[in-house]
Amino acid sequence: MGRCSLQEGCRTIARQSCGRFPFALRVPAIAEVQGSIFISVCAFFHSHFSHVKGISMKLKNKALVTLLAFGALGGIAADASAAEGFVWVGYSTNTTGYAFSVYEYRYDTAQQKSLKCASTLWNSAPIVVSFGGASGTFSDMLDSTLGRKLSNACVRLVGIKGANDYMTGAPPVNVSNHKMAWDRVSVAGQNMGFAVNAVISWAYYSGASHVTVKGGSASGIFGAKVLDQRFASFGVAPWNKVRRFVFGGPPAADLAQACRYTADGTNILQGVTTGFTGYGTCKLYLASRSYAADKLVNTFTPTQLSQLYSMGMKVNTFVGDKDEIFGYGIPGANCATATNASCWKGPEGVDDYLAVSGLRNIPGGVWKASVSNPWAAKFASASAATTFTTVPGATHSSGPDITSGICDVIAEGRANTNPAACYDPGAVVGVIDYVQSNTVYGWACASRSPYPIVVHLYVGGSAGAGTVIGGYTANVASELAVASVCGSFGRAYRFQIPLSLATRQAHVGKKIYIHAIQPTGTSPNNLINNSGVFSVPAP
Fold first, then answer.
1. 119 shares its domain with 247
2. What is the CATH number of the domain that holds 389?
3. Integer angstrom CA distances of residue 172 from 187, 192, 226, 249, 258
4. Taking Cα atoms as reference points, which of 87, 119, 88, 89 lies closest to residue 19?
5. Same domain for 439 and 392
6. What is the pLDDT of residues 434-454, one digit of tens each?
7. Is 502 exposed, middle or buried (0-12, 13-18, 19+ CB in 10 A)?
8. Does 146 share its domain with 192?
9. Within a domain: residue 89?
10. Residues 6 or more apart from 465 whose CB is under 8 A from it?
11. Is 337 helix (H, G, I), strand (E, B) or coil?
């Protein structure tokens, strides 16, 4: 089959304006399509296959294009009428034979809708280029929950699928090759970098204002190598848009440190897999150390660290404190699996990576914390350039859902995004507490969201009946009790609204009403409690 890159050699053989978002199915220019099924891809798909979990459309040259509908590879319904999932949008190969396909999250696969924000923002919306764990398995990469939340926040989630469902193109495991780790990480890093470069160079995504590279487990290690290998590119288009790396597992850098025994004395392989050491166990690897070039990533110089910081580069890592692959155990405990709840001391790879790469010395410092609230991954967006968030109770492959916090970390600080939408904010609630010294005091929030919301103050009646005085942000420090009512962990939900002399002169004695504004427009802008109770004081 002819090669079709994201940059060149493709033509659109079917195009249909599907709702608000145009869909272009791209195949090699030499391919011929059997029949006329592409006359109206979207209409055909919607009317004939909306009940099917996955549809494969076969081209004359046997290439398969798969449209993932409801239920396919973890897709779940966003509402009763629309099915979410991932849709194939293109593919590419490099000169070494590494090939990958690109899939993008759609909150409505039938209508090809991917972003829940104004159409004027679609072209510049930030994108996340995501690689799965287990050396990049396709199913791990397809995270519809994260895709939905990023879509709400006006960020695209783009997943990479390599040949045979693996994204890295890394050499196969070969325990006789004692520099297996370096070979695998180097090749996989090159391939990941190629995939990112191809995606962000493609016209379809070229308008993106910001790019995040996301990897989990093994692809977290490979992603760290991308940060190393591509350093010289970060100041040059299109890599000047890549400003964040998010790792779902420790990006180990020095196997001599990351490859530790379990502490129960059995020397069971923990810390890194056989495929990374080239030995059957960590014990054999540490005893031999036949491969001198032990470091998997290069150390950034002080000048380079300063450059990364000045670029606004951030590295955010999230990992379970009971990670049975990257963790290390407590002396005397049986840490062969993650089932012993009191066993794990925490992941080791992060400290190793920070030390070897030099990132712990980056200006802005390193922020590290263990959080118990699954939403509290939000705190990783602290001012530090490098952050490490441990999630209690999480193993290597399961644990509390922190996709809201990861979405928030990716979206925060980006123009035209709405990080508050990452939390699926619900109904707005609040209370006017009292009026004192010509100021209205109270609090308001959107359920589940840690973010402050806007409130609108009216006098003489609610919206539509009274007079609007203005809009104000409820962002004054608040108590834990307020956060509890809001069902979140925010600490700034209160408002203090001054009533000007002019307002008091014009509206003295009129009742005060406050509407809380729902941040995503998914529920009403309710009046908060005690609206209509207090009056505008005399001037």
1. yes
2. 3.40.50.1820
3. 11, 16, 19, 21, 21
4. 119
5. no
6. 999 999 999 999 999 989 999
7. exposed
8. yes
9. no
10. none
11. coil
Let me know whether 373 and 505 are in one domain: no
Q: 236, exposed or middle or buried, with CB in 10 Å at 0-12, 13-18, 19+?
A: exposed
Q: pLDDT tens-digit profile of 279-314?
A: 666 667 767 665 555 678 888 999 999 999 999 898
Residue 513 CB contacts under 8 Å (≥ 6 apart), including other chains: 457, 458, 459, 461, 462, 463, 466, 527, 531, 532
> Scanning the structure block, which residue is given the tokens 């009191």?
342
* Residue carrying the six token digits 């009790």: 481
Phi, psi of 92 (to 5 degrees): -155, 160
Residue 20 lies in a domain: no
How open is the CA angle 125-401-275, to the nearest 5 degrees? 90
Task: Say which CATH number the domain at 470 has.
Answer: 2.60.40
- With respect to residue 535, please indicate whether it lies within any of the assigned structural domains: no
> Looking at the domain assignment, is residue 70 inside a domain?
no
Cis geometry, peptide bond prior to residue 238 (ω within 30 degrees of 0)? yes
Is 312 found in the same domain as 406?
A: yes
The answer to whether 390 and 319 have CB atoms below 8 angstroms apart is yes
Task: Tell which residue, 173, 153, 169, has the closest CA to residue 409.
Answer: 153
Residue 452 in tokens:
């402050």
Number of domains in the chain: 2
For 314, the domain range is: 115-421
First-to-last CA distance in the chain? 81
**Distance, CA of 140 to CA of 86 (rounded, Å):** 13
User: pLDDT digit string (tens) for 178-201?
Assistant: 677 788 888 888 989 999 999 999
pTM given for the model: 0.77
